[in-house]
Automatic annotation (TrEMBL):
Belongs to the cytochrome P450 family. This is Cytochrome P450 family 4 subfamily B member 1. Its cofactor is heme. Pfam families: p450.
Length: 460
């Protein structure tokens, strides 16, 4: 068979396309190198741990025990140090109250290099069991009841698809943050992790769309509309569906879903982490568990349930919750991008990425004496009065702090008090939790506890 050759015009077109692709790759590489130079220059004043030329510190932070490694580095490098995830993404990792105040008291935007990864999805017998999943179902049910007027999440133990979807998404986003090769969208969407992330996003969106569709269907009924209008308080979804801009235009379906997705994730996953680690602390420190239980019994008295005014009386329980938040913050790390220079000459210039490592800040021995000791009295009025306002920030701080922190604290008080009244918690020493940051603080192997019922079978 005679050989065939490309026509001159086709050959020229192929060369031209190759040249364009090479030019784009070159420009992208040049942009990344320029970005690295700018980030490195902004952090010149801060020494830090040795870094690999390609991986940066990624290999270290992907290991089990990375949070404690951060604390070790924080002891070695006071105030802050550069943290590189791959060759092109670098943060100034801070964990000192004055630095935290300088950055987080302002209104700088969330760091897009990190948070953009979220945009696709804005006991029986003597056996222990993993409480994290059960607490997660409870937190989701509570959120659905309080903010969407729905008595349950629509999930059962045999079909916990939404809860598992959220767990998958937090895992995948954290993996993407820690793996520089996944920072590029084009590359990431071609990988198995990227495909899994898109599937999880779709599953989360389907669940949210189902909630919104159901509420819209209810609002088509005039009787239901009248009931909603005469409620003392509208729930979150009612407010969103009734919201209009200055031109009288309602929120689009995409806008509705984005708001609901954000509320559902941030409203239950952080609470799940907080309650789970608190119950672990109670099992680890039975003397504090018993004192919290006695306080709850005294407050409840002959009542069937706690009342609003009772929450302010739970002083020792509140101190224990705060001490648990100090040692096990639900969100161990948050990020910002500076929109203007910081007043301190040592801190970074406009455009720099700042990572506030809350876990390291809360275990900073220069701020907290004996930081590894569980001591609820740190949060007694006399001990907390002179403390730096940015020394304890489990809900972040400044203009972009958590808007649901009061709801979360009140939910934790009620849930944990009821749990302590009904059960005695103890450790399963064969399965101690291994801390794992996945946007929220989880455990690599779950949080396994023994539960002993404190109520007779025929009791109230």
């Amino acid at each position: 068979m005679a050989p065939t050759f490309l026509s001159p015009s086709l050959s020229y077109l192929s060369l031209w396309a190759s040249g364009v692709i090479l030019a784009i790759v070159f420009l992208k590489l040049f942009h990344l190198l320029l970005r690295r130079h700018k980030l490195a220059k902004a952090m010149d004043n801060f020494p830090g741990p040795p870094t690999h030329w390609l991986f940066g510190h990624a290999l270290e932070i992907q290991k089990t025990g990375s949070l404690d490694k951060m604390v070790s580095w924080a002891h070695q490098f006071p105030y802050a140090f550069p943290l590189w995830v791959g060759p092109f993404l670098g943060f100034l990792n801070i964990y000192e109250p004055d630095y935290a105040k300088a950055v987080y008291s302002r209104g700088d935007p969330k760091a897009p290099d990190v948070y953009s990864f979220l945009l696709q999805w804005t006991a029986r017998e003597n056996k222990s069991f993993d409480i994290f999943c059960d607490v997660g179902h409870m937190a989701l049910d509570s959120l659905m009841k309080c903010t969407f007027g729905k008595g349950d999440s629509g999930l059962s133990y045999s079909d916990s698809s939404y809860y598992q979807t959220v767990a998958d998404l937090t895992l995948l986003v954290q993996q993407r943050i820690d793996s520089f090769q996944y920072h590029n969208d084009f590359i990431y969407w071609l990988t198995p992790h990227g495909c899994r992330f898109l599937r999880a996003c779709q599953a989360a969106h389907d669940h949210t769309d189902h909630v919104i569709r159901n509420r819209k269907a209810v609002l088509q009924d005039k009787k239901e509309q009248e009931k909603i209008q005469h409620r003392r308080h509208l729930d979150f979804l009612d407010i969103l569906l009734g919201a209009r801009d200055e031109s009288g235009i309602k929120l689009s379906d995409a806008d509705l879903r984005a708001e609901v997705d954000t509320f559902m994730f941030e409203g239950h996953d952080t609470t799940t982490s907080g309650i789970s680690w608190f119950l672990y602390c109670m099992a680890l420190y039975p003397e504090h568990q018993q004192r919290c239980r006695e306080e709850a019994r005294e407050i409840l008295g002959d009542q069937d349930s706690f009342k609003w005014d009772d929450l302010g009386k739970m002083t020792y329980l509140t101190m224990c919750i705060k001490e648990c938040f100090r040692l096990y913050p639900p969100v161990p790390q948050v990020y910002r991008q500076l929109s203007k220079p910081i007043w301190s000459p040592r801190l970074s210039s406009t455009g720099s990425l700042i990572s506030l490592h809350i876990y390291a800040l809360h275990r900073n021995s220069a701020v907290w004496p004996d930081p590894e000791v569980f001591d609820p009295l740190r949060f007694s009025p006399e001990n907390a009065s002179g403390r730096h306002p940015f020394a304890f920030i489990p809900f972040s701080a400044g203009p972009r702090n958590c808007i649901g922190q009061q709801f979360a604290m009140n939910e934790m008080k009620v849930v944990t008090a009821l749990c302590l009244l009904r059960f005695e918690f103890s450790l399963d020493h064969s399965q101690l939790p291994i801390k794992l940051p996945q946007l929220v603080l989880r455990s690599k192997n779950g949080i396994h506890l023994h539960l002993k019922s404190l109520r007779p079978e025929s009791g109230k």
